[in-house]
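User: Predict the structure for this protein chain, please.
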Amino acid sequence: MRIALFGATGRVGSDILLLLLKNNIEVTALVRDLEKVQPHDRLTVLQGDAREASDIQRTLKNADAVISALGTDRKTVLTESISHIIAEMKNRNINRIITIGTAGILTSRLEPDLLRYESSESKQRSKVAAKEHHRVFMMLSVSSLDWTIICPTYLPTGTATNEYMIERDRLPVGAVRTTTGDTALFAYNEFIENKHIGYRVGIMSPE
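Assistant: Here is the predicted structure, written as structure tokens:
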């Protein structure tokens, strides 16, 4: 089993990478800065840009599944990369993809016809990141891929508690924060268990 991993040097992506390697899974990671990744026998590191189709193609060679923990960078890296990823996954008959999204694209409890970032639940002044994640959600939802989008709320750096709570398509009631460690752990568990294909999954860590 080989995973194509994007965002491996980020706060969540680096934790996902460690979990995959710890559990004897082969990883190909596309990064912009090679110096940010420690060498490992089961890790192949490629330097490149996720917005470039040719770099996506190199990364997905021999991959069995894809995990993306890419951030928005307040530009269009998410939508540019996901369009290339979806196309190349179809070309290579790779079906499984897990991405890290945001709680803003979960369904609002107060206004069920809206997503959280569109509703009165949202406390974020800027909608730029949520709109990018929303576009990714829409692109995956009309694809034929087996996708899951993991949607943490406020995301402080922290270890995995392994006591996180989840809910499909909504943020669990009382959610205040989701540690980077719990987000990565759930991403790994979902990769192994495949329990939430075709869903956005809200996740919260205990207080």
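The two ends are 35 Å apart (CA to CA).
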